[in-house]
Amino acid sequence: MVEKTFINVPTLKEMENLEQRPLLSEIRRMAREIENGLSCDKISHNYIEMLMKFREFVCDTEFSHLKHMEGISSSDLASARSIFRQYHYSRCCSRLLNSLSVEVVSKYSKAAVQSLESIFRNGPATQAIIVLCTTISKSGLGFKLHKCVSLLETLLTDHKLAEIFWEQSVMNPSMPECNDSLIQDQLTTTIVSLPETVTNKLQKETGEMFYPQSYVPLVCGDIYMTLEKVQGCLVAGSDCSLEFVSKVLGRLALAGHADRVWGCLLPQLYTKVHSDYVWCRICERVITGVPTRCLESVLTPFLKQLPWYGLAGRFLGDSVVKNHTIQNLLCTKLLFHRHFSQILVVQNIIGYLATSHTRRKLYLKVFLSLLEVWGDASSVKHTAYEQHRYISQAVLICVGHLNSQEKEAYKDEFVRLLMPGVSCHIGHSDPKMRRLGMTVAENLTRQVDQGGPQLNFQSECDAEIDALLAATAVPEEPNVDALDRMLGKTVISESTPLPAAVPREAPQPSQSGLGEDSDLDSDDDLQAFDMSHDVVRTKVKVPKYVRDCMDGLISTDDVDRVDVCLQEAETLIRRNPDGLQEIAAEFTKVLLHLSDGASYRGFITRRSAAMVALTVQCPRTVADYLTQEFYERNYNLRQRMDILEVLVAAAKELSKPSPPSTQAAHRKVEEIQSSSQADSATWREIVEKRIESKTRRFARGRSQPLPQPMPNMFAPVAGHFFYPLMKNFDRKENTFDLLGEDTLVLGRLVYSLGMILYAALHVPASGQMGSSLLEFTWGLRFHSDVFVRQAVLFATSMIILVVPCHSLISDLNAEVTEMKLWLEGVMERDPDCECRELALQALVLLGNVMRQEFHVETPVT
Question: Labelling 705: which of 347, 502, 716, 741 has CA 20 to 30 A away?
Fold first, then answer.
């Protein structure tokens, strides 16, 4: 078997290295000599000579110290300088910085100080900044640290970062180490963490240059300078790499500076991409080339600040089609998993997808997915309102971008996805969700099928709905001045004077064709009559007794009589409480079943006030009747909620220390007594007053009298308001199912129980009432409806406030512990932000109550 012999033929580069081997050895020897010379602590002639040699290797000066080196000819001096800067510069800089001290630098000559600065300013920017940052991180407070920071600030002012960016962008085959990924990662970390490195050492002595508001714009300016060079290089036909710029941009965004980065770059770049295709390609490569873990941090602030969706295509191109990470981020995460208060985010995403035929399929796919999620019953029930409003906003923006062909082709699909969502929204317990669903349904049917049947719910509009409807209009392309204003870029011409303050003038009289004497015939100068106290005269006799008022309300055929009786009902009930006990339940029944068939003035307010007055005057009778009727059949949901509102309002009024009627009576008695005393004043009282006014006292009693104790009118009847409401809540009737579809009434019931419990504050039975309410709400803690969960959290806060702390600790110790764990879980994981706020509030209340209970005051000796 014949063995083959392989002959290694040296390449051209290896041959050059063989020829330069003596030169490399001599430079290595010289670098070691400079390192040893700079390592001494004392200034000597040798130290200054090594410093000058080091400067000649770095700066473009005369080779006065290097001309007589052995083994190096005059023609090799430029090559020697390049080799030294590439391989030995960092170590020599390290030795030079380590030798710095107050004693050494104080003996420097002016030329030596200039040499020290020029070594860093004219040396390789990458190595100089890395060496300075490394020395700063290893140094303690002292002269060396401040000198390194000063040198670093000088390099940043000289835009050495732009030099580093350009060095990493140029595709140089002779220097492959410049494009090495490990070196780039180290350099990226150094640039991004440079402010933190300096601040950690200097603390409060840090200069303004290293604050984020100064440093980040400086880096962005250097990035823009590099991109301008790259654009010129590409136009000239040379290749460049933007990988390093993308890495720095991504790491800055990941560090939390994305808003400030785009605030600096967007005003400079949008004018370039508007007219130059090469700039579009550059921006696309920079943005889409960031590391995958930084994409969301870069794109989200970019979409927040981009003033018009048409610019998104120029910055991103068709990257959403090519890059699956960007597609998942734009089409899924930013639309379905997150929400933003700024409308620009969703406008830019959907507009970007809809403005190109290559991305149109993604736009239609996203639209159908949004409509499916919007109409899903589970999503409507378990999604936070802010997230669902964001999805509704996205649906309306998608509608605005539909063309006529797509409306006709997808009309049936849109209606199929829309109808289940309409029923889910209308049956929701939150009125804001209902209004949101009705608005989206009306607008979608109007836009998609203009000739077909239209949905019209006649819902009320507010500022939020108006802003939602405004989202359907596709924004037009703004001009350059408008873009400048949107991006905060103000351009003021020197020839344009600033507007002066214009004084406000009196309004001019309107020219309506009248002569000069027209004011003489006008009635505008006549004083108007005061008609505020006029009484409307009716043919119906005003009732004087409660029974007459009740009879008038029963006769619903006479509209005027019902109106008058309803107006006088509350006054008669509060004025004549005698004999009211016998007819209180009957009168309450009449008011509860009274309907607004003739659109009476203030019907809801007057009817509710009359029922509250009846409950306050006869609390036990009326409360027993209302709580019994709450669970009976043949009542609609509105009547059941009226019962709850009346019970809560009456409980609040009864729990007050002194009712308004009692206050008026006391005030009247006091006025009568004061007038009688004034009339019966005698000379003895006058003398006593004079003596009192001239008497000097060194101590006085109370400046104000003690408050008069008043009986709590709610304490004897609190149980009649509270316990009957909890007895039949799990009973399912044909028209009433609290644990099923009627979650709105269930939420109102829990809210009402919490308010009634709060009205029973300081009542002896409040502890037992709180324990019963805690047991009642225990099974509703994880209810699927957000309104019920909010009501349960509110009731929990009322329990913590009302139940005495010693009862919480002793009688309800296990329940309170589990309650605390549940509240912490709600605060961390509940999708609704209001539920999280209520849970946090309940935890704070619980902590305050516990601290007050265990706080031991030191006795006064």
Answer: 716
